[in-house]
Design a protein that fits this description.
The chain is built from 11 helices and 9 strands. With 256 residues, it is an alpha/beta fold. α4 links the parallel β4 and β5. The protein is globular, with a radius of gyration of 18 Å. It starts with a helix and ends with a helix. This is EAL domain-containing protein.
């Protein structure tokens, strides 16, 4: 596909040209109704094509191996934005999505740990189970290294890909995120509520907190609350927004 080839070429310089930027989306604690943490989501402002979303360029960056530089840039940008939140008196953990292939990239792991060691702002990494299953020995070892550096680990997209209870138990994760494919139809499907409820119970049995992503309606929130879901994330609370708008959101929700 010509399009992908052109994009791949453009992508290699996108970091240096300052074309990447981040949006932040809060995760809210269901019971306390407070912002618990946030997720950083990468965007690419292409000079001629306009806004490109990560599903259209992360796979290309993984193929060209630009993903390690892009992710290191993301970690540094999140830390810089965290200083702004801290100046506002809001010290929340910000989670960064980490591609599976980076979990077996020793150079990336070393560099990421160096960057994280030089700061004391709270950070988290979101990883999918599928990415652990690909190369479990080094993935689990490196996740433990990240956890030892104080990075919170969350399992992303739970239920959407390959899943293994054997690995789930071995991961140093304290949060499990239920994929939005189960949450979006929670109140209109017969099957999804059963899957969501059993996932919440499973996570709690493993002493993990549960986040539901893709919460768009008050009805979904109400059902998740009854099911004992700990945190929610979705358009009902806030769309992903750039740092200045996110700071404003945090000011407007000081105790909520
Ligand atoms: P994800 O980690 O599962 O992120 C959740 C996606 O759902 C985001 O899409 C978010 O904007 C969207 N979303 C949030 N709330 C709602 C909602 O209520 N309804 C619906 N329908 N969607 C909602 P986005 O930002 O397009 O990101 C897509 C994927 O790209 C992410 O899925 C993640 O896997 C990947 N990604 C994003 N940033 C990065 C990054 O810095 N590095 C890596 N490796 N992957 C990233
Ligand atoms: Ca994520
Ligand atoms: Ca997710
Ligand atoms: Ca996803």
């Amino acid at each position: 596909m010509v399009d992908a080839m052109v994009l791949k070429r453009d992508l290699s310089g996108a970091v240096d040209r300052g074309e990447l930027f981040l949006q932040y989306q809060p995760k809210v604690n269901v019971r306390r109704q407070q912002v618990a943490s946030a997720e950083a989501l990468l965007r690419w402002r292409h000079p001629t094509r306009g806004l490109i979303l990560p599903n259209d360029f992360i796979p290309l960056a993984e193929a060209t191996r630009d993903i390690d530089r892009m992710t290191l840039w993301t970690i540094e940008q999140v830390i810089a934005d965290q200083q702004l939140l801290r100046a506002d008196g809001r010290d929340i953990t910000v989670f960064i999505n980490i591609s599976g292939q980076l979990l077996s990239n020793a150079k990336f792991v070393k560099r990421a740990c160096e960057i994280v060691s030089a700061t004391d702002v709270p950070l988290g990494f979101e990883i999918t189970e599928t990415s652990v299953i690909r190369d479990p020995v080094s993935a689990i070892a490196n996740l433990n290294i990240f956890a030892d550096h104080g990075i919170a680990i969350a399992i992303d997209d739970y239920g959407a890909g390959l899943s293994s209870l054997a690995y789930l138990k071995q991961l140093p994760a304290r949060e499990l995120k239920i994929d939005k494919m189960f949450v979006l139809q929670l109140t209109s499907s017969n099957r999804d509520p059963l899957i969501v409820r059993s996932t919440i119970d499973l996570a709690h049995a493993l002493e993990m907190e549960v986040t539901a992503e893709g919460v768009e309606t008050p009805a979904a929130l109400a059902l998740l609350s009854v099911m004992g879901c700990d945190m929610i994330q979705g358009y009902l609370i806030s769309r992903p927004v750039e740092i200045e708008a996110f700071r404003q959101y945090m000011r407007d929700h000081k105790d909520a």
